[in-house]
Specification:
- Helices cover 66% and strands 0% of the residues.
- The protein is mainly alpha-helical and 105 residues long.
- The radius of gyration is 18 Å and the shape is flat.
């Protein structure tokens, strides 16, 4: 991958943060040292890496609400939210692919 392509895909050289750091990123609890970088290619992809933490919190909420006997989730809302998330990821993947293909010309 050449240098220009690395800058087009900012997270290409970034280290993956651990689970706790991903969880803290959901609530903007990162220190300035963790969230400041000299080069854009070193910035971790906090959004993608926070997915496991987010799903863990959703499952925890579901377990607690089931234990308390409260109905928190509606199937139609859950399916709509999942579909919106998938569509947003597909659009981003398409944009990343276009960026890489255009940089090869």
């Amino acid at each position: 991958m050449n240098k220009s392509t690395e800058y087009l895909i900012p997270h290409s050289n970034a280290a993956k943060p651990d689970f706790i750091t991903s969880l803290r990123s959901l609530f903007y609890l990162l220190t300035p040292k963790e969230s400041s970088f000299k080069d854009v290619t070193l910035v971790p992809n906090y959004t993608d890496n926070a997915l496991a933490a987010f799903i863990s919190l959703v499952l925890l909420e579901l377990a607690i609400s089931t234990f308390k006997g409260k109905k928190v989730y509606n199937l139609n809302h859950s399916l709509t939210n999942v579909a919106a998330g998938v569509c947003s990821r597909l659009i981003r993947c398409n944009n990343d692919l276009d960026t890489v293909l255009n940089s090869m010309h």
